[in-house]
Structures are given as C-alpha cells and as structure tokens.
Specification:
The chain contains four helices and 28 strands. It is globular. The protein is 11% helix and 45% strand. Strands 2-5-12-7-8-11-10 form a seven-stranded antiparallel beta sheet, with helices on one face. Strands 1, 3, 4, 6, 9 and 13 form a six-stranded antiparallel beta sheet that branches. With 407 residues, the chain is mostly beta strands. It has helices spanning 2-22, 85-89, 167-175, 311-318; strands at residues 26-27, 39-41, 47-55, 63-74, 76-78, 93-102, 113-117, 122-127, 138-143, 154-155, 158-161, 179-182, 193-202, 214-220, 227-233, 242-245, 251-252, 258-260, 264-274, 277-288, 298-304, 327-330, 337-344, 348-355, 361-369, 372-379, 386-394, 397-405.
C-alpha cells in the first residue's frame, strides 16, 4: 500500500512539474512581497549590480525593475523560470520592455538586448530599435527559434548574435536553456541605469501587436522655402491607433502630411496607443535644409526607423543607393566582429569593403561563397568607434549599408 501511495504521489508531482514547465514564464516584477522572484545577481565577479523597483511603465502602468551598474561585471540572472525554452516554447517569442535612464556618457543610440545561456555558452538578442536616455519605453520580442542553414534567427525586432558564431551551439542554448540574463553595462564607468519589465514568453503574433516603426519621406520645394513630410507605418495595425509628434510642437495623425517652414533638426516620434495609454514609441531625427542648400527637389525615402535615429546615420543613408537589402550585418552595432549574412541563388565571388566616412577603405575581404544562406565573418577589433559604410559586390551588383562600431 505504501508503494502504491508513493507511486501515486510521484505521478501527481510529475504531472505538476510538467504543467509548471509548460506554463510560459513571465516576470512582471509586480509582487508586493518579492518583486524580484527568482532573479538574482550573477555569481562573483559578475554580479555587481544594484536592483530596485519603480513605477510606472507607460505601456501598462505597472511596476518595473531598476538595474544600476556597479564596478565590474553587472549581470542580473534567472536560473529557474526560463529553462529549456526550445523544448517547451519553440516558435514563440521572449518579450521584454526596456527604458534607458542613464547611459553614463555612452553618447550613442543604444540597442536593448537580452541574453540566454546553456550554462556554458551564451547568445544575445540585439534589438534593431535604439534608445537614448529618457527617450521612452520600447517593447522588443526575440524569437525562440533554431538556426537555419547556419544562420541565427532574426525577426523585424532584431537578431540573435553570439561570438564566435556557431549554429550548433546556438541551437543547444535554445533547446537546453538554463538561464536568462540582463545587464546595464555600456561603458567602463559605473553610472548606467536601465529599467526592464514584462520579460515574458508568449506567442509572437497578436492583434494590434505593438509596432511603432515607420518610414518618413520628406520632399523639399525647389525654392527650399518649405519641406513636406509624410509618415509610412511598418505595421498592419489600424492607423487610428497612432499619433505622430513632428518635433516642432505639432501632434497629429499619421495619415496627414506635415509642412516644415523652418530649417533645422527635428525629432519625429510615432506612438501607438491602446485606449488613451501609449503602448510603444519610435523616434527618428530628420534634417530640414536651409534654402541655399537646395538646388532641386529632394526626396529622402530611406530615413527608416529604428536604426536611423541619429542624424549622422540618416545623412549617410541618403548618400547610399536605395535598394532592397540582399545582405544583413549582424551584429550592428558591432564591436570585435561582424557577420555579413546573405542568401545566394548560386555560387559566386563576394567582395566586402568597409570604408570610413571619409571614403578611405579600412578593411577589404573577398571569398567564393556557395549558394544558399551563408555568411562572411569580418574582424573589426582594430576599427575605432564610429560609423562606416560596408560595400558588398557580387557579380555586377553592388550593395551598401551602414555599420556602427561601438567600443
């Protein structure tokens, strides 16, 4: 009889364990008695982070996690709730909300990110969207997917990265996830403050999914006396959910164009609303020219958020030929390396040239690449921080993209 009861208890516990593992993990940091749940600083010497909670996250009005950088490695991790993500939640996404309070003099647009580990190796999802101190909350979703053809998964929000890139190790991280980690580290100083909230696994698609990404087209009159700007959403949501702040004190709907009569730099922000509450915001900076700078009508169609939210990158983008991107730079911004990822219809020779903003070539590399999804790894350790142009040649076709180096 004892054995029967023990076996029944074992089955019951096993059932409860399976149900718990199949419940998508979600950390909203709202528990009044223990807002941190199973999160804690990483083991020494990498857990040098101060934590707290604050309110309110403008997405949902809830409490959020505050991370402050201390001297040394500053990782905050959860080794319990997010295990074996690929086993239980393959095809879903890890969502997280992010806000940058203080960048400790980083001085550049920052890409929110989140890291998974199998206990030995790690992979980081880097968001396309960029933030600056006080620019507002953003919501990012990272796909829980396996690599394909040696290329790590990506989506409209960003891409998975790791160094060195190894698809087999990445797949093991996804299938045998042991921990999830976040960090405020950006610089060698210790003043960074970031907010995280709603780190949750859930289906990637949804009605009125939060997506405030947009393109902006500006057309300047031949006299240069005025410039007309028009917003084009990168979302299938109803335009009625959005408002645009044109950066000159005017707020309107995204379907109505706007006229600028004064030259200067303007920060244009599009916000998606849920009821009367803002859900997510994306901003891009545009430059309205002075009359004497204009000789003919200008049509800037390539100012695309979120990667082009500083004027230097926007101006560089205008100088590069407009074409569909056949190649992807991952990660971007890069530090010690960048992978030029591509999908070739047939085998061919690919030449890659990286030039600084003066046009001087600083790196050149050429390889014969097989057809299908392939990549060329470029060592960028010797490049100084700044903006570069990457030119990729294949047969008679040339593609150019911006690369941001962040040290």
């Amino acid at each position: 009889m004892v054995r029967i009861y023990f076996f029944a208890l074992y089955l019951l516990m096993g059932s409860l364990m399976i149900n718990a593992q199949n419940t998508p993990p979600c950390s909203d940091f709202n528990d009044p008695s223990n807002p941190y749940g199973n999160w804690s600083p990483a083991p020494a010497p990498n857990g040098n982070v101060s934590v707290g909670v604050g309110s309110a996250n403008t997405f949902d009005g809830s409490q959020f996690l505050i991370l402050k950088d201390l001297s040394g490695g500053s990782w905050y991790q959860n080794w319990k709730d997010y295990q074996y993500l690929g086993k239980f939640f393959l095809g879903q996404c890890i969502y997280f909300d992010f806000y940058l309070e203080n960048d400790s003099g980083y001085g550049m647009p920052y890409h929110p990110n989140i890291t998974l580990s199998d206990g030995t190796n790690s992979a980081t999802f880097v968001a396309n969207i960029t933030v600056t101190p006080g620019s507002g909350w953003v919501r990012v979703k990272a796909p829980i997917q396996l690599s394909s053809g040696g290329v790590l998964p990506s989506n409209s929000d960003g891409a998975w990265t790791m160094s060195p890139m190894n698809a087999a190790i990445f797949d093991n991280i996804i299938m045998n996830t042991q921990a999830i980690g976040i960090s405020p580290d950006m610089t060698s100083t210790q003043q960074e403050v970031v907010f995280f909230d709603n780190i949750c696994v859930k289906p990637c698609e949804g009605c009125n999914e939060c997506n405030s990404n947009f393109k902006i087209q500006t057309t300047t009159s031949t006299s240069g006396n005025f410039t007309i700007a028009q917003i084009f959403l990168e979302s299938t949501n109803s335009p009625s959910l959005y408002k645009v702040d044109w950066g000159d004190g005017t707020i309107g709907d995204v379907m109505t164009s706007h006229t600028y009569t004064n030259p200067g730099s303007y920060k244009v922000c599009v916000t998606q609303y849920e009821g009367d509450k803002p859900k997510c915001t994306t901003c891009v900076e545009i430059c309205i020219p002075k009359p004497f700078q204009v000789g003919k009508a200008v049509n800037n169609t390539n100012l695309t958020s979120p990667l082009k939210d500083i004027a230097a990158i926007a101006r560089a983008e205008i100088g590069v030929q407009s074409e569909t991107k056949d190649y992807t730079l991952v990660p971007n911004p890069a530090k010690n390396y960048v992978d030029v990822q591509m999908n070739l219809a047939k085998k061919g020779n690919i030449s890659v040239k990286i030039s600084d903003m003066s046009g001087k070539a600083v790196i050149e590399k050429s390889e014969t690449i097989e057809n299908g999804r392939q990549s060329i790894k470029i060592n960028t350790e010797k490049l100084i921080q700044g903006t570069y142009i990457v030119e990729i040649k294949s047969e008679n076709k040339v593609s150019s993209q911006q690369l941001l180096i962040s040290k």
